[in-house]
Amino acid sequence: MSARTAPSTPPAPDLGGPALRAFFRIAQAWGLKSAEARRLLGDPPESTFYKWKKQQDGAPGRDVIERISYVLGIFKALELLFPDPTRADAWIRKPNAALPFGGRSALERMLSGNVADLYVVRSYLDAQRGWQ
């Protein structure tokens, strides 16, 4: 296949609907309050958040797509580490003595609002799985 016919990366709007649907399923599985889910998405305006939640579609920006990508990775890593879905979903709320958490839960770390904190949680879980 030549460079001219190679598939290109879809633009963010094409990823918006599937990404938002996945995010809201994870938010439900984790029992997130709307304020927590909004914070994980980078605090979009309330009206935008509720529109995305209701329609399960939209065109979020790159920052939101990046945040959702980390949340998806965290969710998947937890599924692999804890085959019991109840245990996997509960892990994010449990206090954790590991260095990145300092006794707080992973969710508390993720709710700081910084995308870097999502990265830290994802990296920690990947290391626990042996992916460094």
Throw out a few tags for this protein.
132 residues, mainly alpha, 7 helices, 0% strand, DUF2384 domain-containing protein
3D shape: globular
Tell me how many strands there are: 0
Q: Tell me the domain tally.
A: 1
Number of helices: 7
Low-confidence stretches: 1-11
Assembly type of the chains comes to single chain
Q: H/E order of the elements?
A: HHHHHHH
Question: From the helix content, strand content and strand pairing, which structural class follows?
Answer: mainly alpha
Major sheet characteristics: none
Structural Rg: 16 Å
Instruction: Report the portion of residues in β strands.
Output: under 5%
CA(first)-CA(last) distance = 33 Å
Mean pLDDT: 89
Helix amount, in percent?
55-70%
Provide an overview of this structure.
The chain is mainly alpha-helical. The protein has one domain (13-128). It has 7 helices and no strands. It has helices at 12-29, 34-40, 46-55, 62-81, 85-91, 106-110, 115-128. Helix 1 (12-29) packs across helix 4 (62-81), helix 4 packs across helix 5 and helix 4 (62-81) packs parallel to helix 7. The longest helix is centred in the middle third of the chain and has 20 residues, at 62-81. The chain is globular, with a radius of gyration of 16 Å. The N and C termini lie far apart (33 Å).
Please provide a brief summary of the model:
This protein has 132 residues and is mostly helical. 61% of the residues lie in helices and 0% in strands. The protein starts with 11 loop residues before the first helix and ends with a helix.
